[in-house]
Backbone:
């Protein structure tokens, strides 16, 4: 059974997002995505300072099965990336919603974070998406 935390927001490409205490939005891949990929062996993420558009590639995750692109769920600027994944890419497999996060983004000036997040899928809608894909 795939774990889908209620407090997160999701994309149809199987990324998750949540607002941090600092006001940045943390992004990672879902439990379903990491399970589908298998053992993750390498992660390549865009540098901090990189500006992204919605659905633009943020980087890629390489597993024993394939290489998959990671997409930005919305427009923003990468402020930090999870450097721990360089030495421990398997954190995505063991803790996709915690230590296995990928990047943190800030939104363009004047953009309301809650309205951006509410444009994504909530946990119930993401669970429906998964049910329809299987």
Residues:
């Amino acid at each position: 059974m795939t774990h889908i935390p209620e407090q997160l927001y999701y994309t149809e490409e199987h990324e998750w997002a949540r607002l941090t205490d600092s006001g940045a939005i943390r992004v990672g891949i879902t439990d379903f995505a990491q399970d589908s990929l298998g053992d993750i062996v390498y992660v390549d993420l865009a540098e901090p300072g990189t500006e992204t558009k919605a659905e633009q590639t943020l980087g890629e995750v390489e597993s024993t099965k394939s290489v998959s692109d990671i997409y930005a769920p919305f427009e923003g600027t990468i402020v930090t990336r999870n450097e721990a994944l360089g030495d421990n890419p398997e954190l995505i497999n063991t803790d996709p919603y915690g230590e296995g996060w990928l990047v943190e983004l800030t939104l363009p000036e004047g953009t309301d974070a809650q309205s951006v997040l509410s444009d994504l899928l909530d946990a119930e809608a993401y669970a429906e998406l998964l049910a329809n894909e299987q």
Residues 14 and 30 are 6 Å apart (CA to CA). The mean pLDDT is 95. The chain has one domain: 9-113. The longest strand covers residues 57-63.
